[in-house]
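fold-stage: in
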Amino acid sequence: MTWFYDPRATYEDNLAHGPFGAFAADAGADADAGPSPAVAPAEELPTLSFLGRPVCRPFGIPAGPLVNAAFCEAAFAHAFDIAVYKTVRTGAHPSHPFPNCLAVRTAGPLDPGRLDTLVADSALDAARSISNSFGVPSRDPDAWQPDMARAVAAAGAGQVLVGSFQGTRGPGGEDAYVADHVHAAALCVEAGAPVLEMNLSCPNEGTGALLCFDTRLVARIAGAVKEEVGDVPLVLKLAHFPTDEALDALLRATSPLVDGYAAINTVPARLVTDEGRPALPGRGREVAGVCGEAIAPAALAMVRRLAAWRADAGAGFAIVGVGGVMDTAGVAAHVAAGADAVMSATGAMIDPLLGRRVAAVSWPR
């Protein structure tokens, strides 16, 4: 297996010992080793941009598999020019128990309008779609802040590190929840993140309970975060929206506040074994996010909807297309749909050389 994030190892093992496969040779040995060299030739100057930052290609890896600076360094070295540091919180938070990634058997594209029941197992060698069931783990800021700073420093010419964050619910109600998002964003800025992404679509919070579907609260949080971070670009990470009316409401409320939208995270499904038992152990894990090839049509549909709304409204926000991008054709499809930047998680995990394949062809326009 060439996967740089090893789904057959625990999250903790990946954090401590990864990356693996093709990325392993380019991972920094320690925090003092300095950034790995970017793969782009020295004479290549960035001619494109991502949220005002020059990039060689607006292509990268979204929040999820890049769990620390070593993974981000290797991503940059393999020509993934945008690296999104895995979502962080204001306090330590554990991962869901192992396993987190299973191979998901699908007969075709998933319809986000229904909750499919799918068989999932450990036959990962031939997987094209996988489960995402981590629960958004995070280290304490004392650990992740210096590590994020190291990841920021690893970006070469024409590359950019994005800091992904989210708030954590707890005592204190809505006011405390909003304040926790603001604090998390401020910690990322302190670590030097030049671009922020706010995760509103964690697939482990239930199909209908995702924060991105609560327009009023999202607008309140986004406004508070932007007041804190100022000119630092802020992207909102979205799930697939069930109706145009719901998406319209969110965009009307938030597009004046934020700089872009990334879509989509995953498509939820009920995962079972061949015998019909829950495939993932533990309470509340019967439904998990599915990512990879099977969600490509849903992801492209969201990009088209975002692009159509932007054009109709004369808005200027950026669109990051993510979901089911497995090859250079998937990149081109997202750009054709209206994406300004494109990211691949499952596709990049399966093929760590995908960044170099994208770098070898002209960026689609």
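fold-stage: in (second)
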Amino acid sequence: MLKWNNFGSAFNTLRELDVTAIREESEVVVRIAGLGSRPLFQRVVEILRTSGSHHFGPHGSDPFSYQPLPYGEPEPGLREADLLLVTVDGRAPLTAREAEAIGRLALLALPTVIIIGGVAAPDETEPVRPEFAHARILVLPDLGASAAPEQIVTAILDRLPKDRQLAAARAVTGLRPVYARTLINSISNTNATYVLLSSIPMQIPILSVPIATADMLVLTKNQALMVYRLALAHGAAPDFQARMGEILPVVGGAFAWRQLARTLIGLIPFWGILPRVAVSYAGTYATGMAAWRWFAEGELVSRERMKAIADDALRIGREQGAVLIATMRAQGNKRGLSLFRRRNKG
């Protein structure tokens, strides 16, 4: 019979995880090329370097470099950039030559963010200028506004290639909060979706315990890799076993873990699909939040605070679960209708 100790055995699988690829991903050299207004670019970089978590400080090569707008053929090194960060001082008219140079950057086919500072956002009905059409445009009337750092970071991470985001967060402290939130939400949704798909055969009694045990191993693995990414993103040393040993006391005895284990092992077999999906989301989310606070600030989340986080995550998990179930049913209905039409064609 499965017992609580079986959940502890899931952690033994962590020793078998190959985290080499994640570690290597955190060590790649990220290149963000700044062009346009140099003072504005320097202000943006200052915001990114001074905001976010400094508990471990930045690690890795400085990703930022600057060069003037290319009025002719772009320098060869520019083509190797992972992201072009073009800064435009909106208080000064953009000359035809500058507009042409910005438009020419589109020929490089590189991820691009254009930050226009010092002016109010244009009317949404106003068409985008052709030289800006290839880029994510961010208009910031005041770079000193409280919302500016997150707006800048969101735009950068939206365009930066996914396999460069971990190393970028490790090197630039201001990128860490948005990276962490995005990662936690993504893995929580991944685990919720996995449990949803596996819950269908679990309705067959003879399959429920083996599938639930396999579920727990998969969810534990996903959570462990999420925690490891959070650790690396915040500048912690890349020793995987040390990071797991460090974080387990933080999240191992938490409410969300115990509830997740009891539910997924099937000790409450009459629970429906939606509660299982909600709990898998909540357990992953609460684990991620506790790990994030630990690596970002060295904060040990109290049991009471963890329960509050888990309760809030459970509410979100129910909402997400309902959406996932509705989506799955809609897709199933479409496939069924398509099959019906094919069979009755002619």
